[in-house]
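Reopening closed ticket. The problem is back. First fold of the pair:
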Amino acid sequence: MKNILIGGKWVDTSNYIDIINPYNGDIIDKVSKASSDHLREAVESALRGSKVMRGLTRYRRYEILSNTAELMMERKDEFAKTMALESGKPLSFSKGEVSRAYETVVLAAEEAKRLGGEVIPFDAAPTSSDKYCFYIRVPVGIVLSITPFNFPLNLVCHKIGPAIAAGNSIIHKPASKTPLTSLLLGEILLEAGLPKEALNIVICSSENAETYLVKNPLIRKISFTGSKVVGERIALNAGLKKLSMELGSNSGVIIDENTDITKAVAAVKVGAFGYSGQVCIHCQRAYIHESVYDEFKKKIIDAANSLVIGDPLEMRTDIGPMIDEKEIIRIQSWLKEAESEGAKILCGGQREGMVFKPTVVENVTEDMKIVKDETFAPTLSLIPFTDFKDAVSKLNNSVYGLQAGIFTDNVKNAYYAIDTLDVGGVMINDIPTFRIDLMPYGGMKSSGYGREGPRYAVEEMTEIKCVRFHL
């Protein structure tokens, strides 16, 4: 049994949540669930911790994060197995996430030493020749981190790491389905030297999180990754807080004529079906030039059918389970609805236990749920085009705008897409699912606002304080 972390102590609340292996339904562990009183204690602890963190030198923050990164790698196999068990992410992908999380924490450590300010040339104004000014960045205070199930380590590090680098304290609420990885990270952070009240990890209901955390005026910053619906609710209830929102997408890719189809297929296979499509930048739409449509279709179907379905604890497994039964039922209903409207399932469309088989669909329309909404499942809709600008227009025709991929050898087409697409990132000759952890990552439109990547997150987790000398 695992307990929540408040004020450096592991608290048994006598009220527990079962953590379920989504592949076989086994209970992995039990985790203490926080009550409203526990959440109030967490805020009080974080308030005290924020004062301690503000007093730490930048070098000390760097040391704590560097120690954390090294300790994570010492327990990398434990992290990977924990993620595979609680999230169903295949072990090979879980190991990759540990490596990425290590890099994220190292990057955050480096930013702790870079955090500074800027001199403002007041003598650029006609009446201020004898005045000097500069600004510094100061911690916001308490950061509330809320993360989803799908990247239970790296997304947590993208919030906690920059918050520490910036000199803040943190209250972290992990997804209730995957809290074990966060609790393991909490152990390591304390061991690495983080002040005991600087980190509080609570597992609680959404209602209590909203009432006692989101609405709490003592919390000055919320960093949220999750659904558009929940993000909008947080924004409505947060009050005067700084917010970062990464809210998912129905990301797409354009396969232009005269491009390397084999290379494109190899990338799209990962973007469309990796981790069963349960990725915010999952590649669920493919707009393919009619001259290469048949070739791409055949190769992507072959690629989908070649993927190994099975137990996420086996290294050979490519596709593991969906996170729970209701998500399988949902995507089945969306596909059935699309079929009734004329869509054709070319492969997949069926379940094998808790695994949903990689699915390729054609004859779709823009108003079908599997095209316009976020499927968060291993689906790929194929849509032919004749005119590149028309393909860009269709890719843009979405309430979302996280990332897009463009495979083309035509530089003019590439720049047209870059200039026209309303998305946070355009990946040329790659899939929208591409991300490295030092880049600015975030979306436009209903995909949210704000940017992650340690350098950019640190800026979002600090305030600018302007200093003026009148000499």
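Second fold of the pair, where the issue appears:
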Amino acid sequence: MKFTPRPYQERMIQAILQRKRIALFAGMGMGKTSSTLEAIRRIREKRPKLKALIVAPLRVAQSTWPDELLKWDDFKHLKVSVVCGNQRERIQTLETDADIYTINYENIPWLVNWCGDDWKFDLIVADESTRLKGLRSKQGTQRAKFLARVAHQSEGFIELTGTPAPNGLLDLWGQMWFLDKGARLGKSFTAYQKQYFYPVTHGGAAQHWCEWRPFEGSDEKIKEKLKDITVTVNPEDYFDVAQNISNDVVVELPPLVMKQYRRFARELYLELENGEEITAANAAVKTGRLLQMASGAVYSEEGEGFELFHSAKIDALRSVIEEANGMPVLCSYSFRHEVERIKQAFPQAKLLDKDPQTIRNWNAGRIPLLLAHPASCGHGLNLQDGGNILVFFSCGWSLELHDQIIERIGAVRQAQAGHARPSFVHYIVAKGTLDEVVKERLASKREVLDVLLDKKTAILGDE
């Protein structure tokens, strides 16, 4: 498939090409990854020996960037090496000749120590750059401190995030240092803090803490300072707010879980080959175990409790919530154990129950994460005032239920309520599982059996 940049993507690409050190602020689903790869491809046309290092959260480094390279014909010639795993695996992949290297933030101290004086990367891409906000002149987080040692040895530095200041404007200084060494916001965090913020003390003499609040006008002054090294892409400037913006958040199951998954999948396909009929009516029963495994847990045969297999989708949901930057998120689930696992990971989550006050609290913005089964979101339920972000932790086979929960906060409802904002629909999809089959069925409205048979090779792999 050929990559053709959309106008907002071309804007990001040009920003990278025109400035060697730049921050791109664009939300999930806006194409930051593919835009950055296209910029790297164009740079390499003139500098074919350029080596790029992409630093990202573990899941993103392991799968998102490599998968994006495979997705587009334009990037398939670029060789990527994933520097993750144990030390032996990291050394092996680091010493592999590649064009692009990906690594997770936790391994940055190791990488800097291992490379020593032989830092070979011409360009660094910091995906989810808010993880560098903890940089300080004398203290700060280890990963930021170690990356700071080599950041300006690389000619280029690109920062990608949808939420540059999740906890306030104080988060910006550390990230911007990697671009200009403090030239715009101050040579130290303390200098930045004193210029744009004032302290407010809370508590008594025995125990107190200080909160730093921005002076009036600090927001605009900071934006003005950073305007030449930052590009902000707002979806409402490019998308029709009357249309939902869909985005797949792809996760990979751990190898041992994937092996076990395919064993159960073979049993399902044997039934199909023996003439077993699977319709929309009985698909949930026939495929339930596989969909549960893709989700991360499976009910015990006795129906009491569940067995945990992985947390890949929990990690992906955390990324979506971080990208939301405090905006409420509606999360659709299929299995009851998903509610338990999500609430354990996110104590602030609230289940949509029969209490009318729950809906009132959601629409008033008092619930940051609302969990809802599509069957509980029937016609007449109004959730559009509470938020515009929907995440499918997992999907069922029912097209009606799928469309029903989208309709609760979708683009049409947003417009009817007078909210001039787009609606985001994120699907957390486990790669190589029935998640892909369900997604295809919902998009195409084809018969369940037809889609299952079409996806057989992708689900069973080479085994």
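Update: turned out to be a display glitch only; the data is intact. The domain at 244-460 is CATH 3.40.50.300 (Rossmann fold). The first helix runs from residue 7 to 18. Please close again.
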